[in-house]
Amino acid sequence: MNSDRRRFIKKTFAAGAGLAAVGIPGELAAGSFHQTSRPKYVKATSNYKPSQQKASIRFGVIGLNHGHIYGQVEALLGGGGKLVSVYAKEPELLEGFTRRYPDVKVASGEEELLEDDSIQLIASASIPSERAPLGIRSMKNGKDFMSDKPGITSLGQLAEVKKVQKETGRIYSIMYSERLSNPATVKAGELIKAGAIGKVVQTIGLGPHRMRSNTRPEWFFDPERFGGILTDIGSHQADQFLFFTGSTEAKVVSSQVGNLNNPQFPQFQDFGDMMVRGNKGTGYIRIDWFTPDGLNTWGDGRLTILGTDGYIELRKYADIAGREGGNHLFLVDQKETKYYDCSEVYMPYGEQLVNDVVNRTETAMTQAHCFLATELALRGQANAVTL
Q: Do 153 and 265 fall within a single domain?
């Protein structure tokens, strides 16, 4: 055995010497092409600067069933909105909300907000299946609507929402927070718009989440109420695919879902993926509820954007390679490798939405984009093969 090993080592060294003799660079023969250096550090700033004199709207909140409502409210407040009143059926959820926003008026019912002509927009993170009906009631009462994702949980709901939106001319905005509330993703959009990686060819979006089933409400495990894994988390990734490729038309090529590790919740789906194709690029989406407790955040969300002249990788919430915190962006082009610290990049969605409400514009997100991202997720869910 030892003599065989010695013969193997001798042959390996001889092969290396032979490579050098025929002109292969010594560092290549020695394997140094596997070595890497640290990328150039860049403290990222945003091209979008907040206005010194922001527009203002009055808004109300109905439905507090997901913690995303706090991100929605903060976006609106930061954008110039004024929180007027709130309604939720659950006293325990109201208690936490009013503790954070002590000046908000607690309404006796949702009609109090819907019939208040001074309120211009309703924000909601109610149970997912209840969001579209609430959005329809809001639009019919002359108000714009801002929903947590998923903003719509079935193709039937989508058809009705689109019909009422067209009839009323109101805004139906879904806050796809993995793009709109993440500084690294905002910066990636600016870099791509400036041509940093050429033409975008494909996106790969990974959206892992932590389960913690003992803290989840009953509706979380019912696909009729939360819409299914592709409808829910997948809508984030569908939004990013459309945005970064610039696609205005798209379809689902294939999709699959499954309950792979939670038999105690037979209707629940803990894994899903889908391939999508647009008129300006392709995409792959994978989402799951398998984030281990050893990670220091709820999910190692990543996005890779492939371009003709380079690529961008986002590590949004954690960098398991060692950098602290989130908002990490890596860019590789034809010249160099850069690391962008995006922790101080301004996120303009809230201000843009407030301006859209006041000016009847579409700067935060076009209505067509909002609906198409949701439609992709819904069709992926509806046509998915069950694993």
A: no
SS (H, E, C) 27-49: HHHCCHHHCCCCCEEEECCCCCC
d(CA 202, CA 196) in angstroms, rounded, equals 15
pTM: 0.89
CA Rg, the chain, in Å?
24
Q: DSSP string of 329-362?
A: EEEE-SS-EEEEE-TT----HHHHHHHHHHHT--
Opening angle at CA 76, ends 73 and 82, nearest 5: 90
367 part of a folded domain: no
What are the distances in angstroms from CA 77 to CA 13, 54, 130, 345, 353? Answer: 67, 11, 24, 18, 11
CATH code: domain of residue 170: 3.40.50.720
The 10s digit of each residue's pLDDT in 29-81 is: 444 445 556 789 899 988 888 887 889 999 999 999 999 999 999 999 999 99
Which one-letter DSSP state was computed for residue 176?
A: -
Closest to 346 measured CA to CA, from 146, 181, 173, 191: 181
* Structural domain boundaries, residue 341: 179-348+380-386
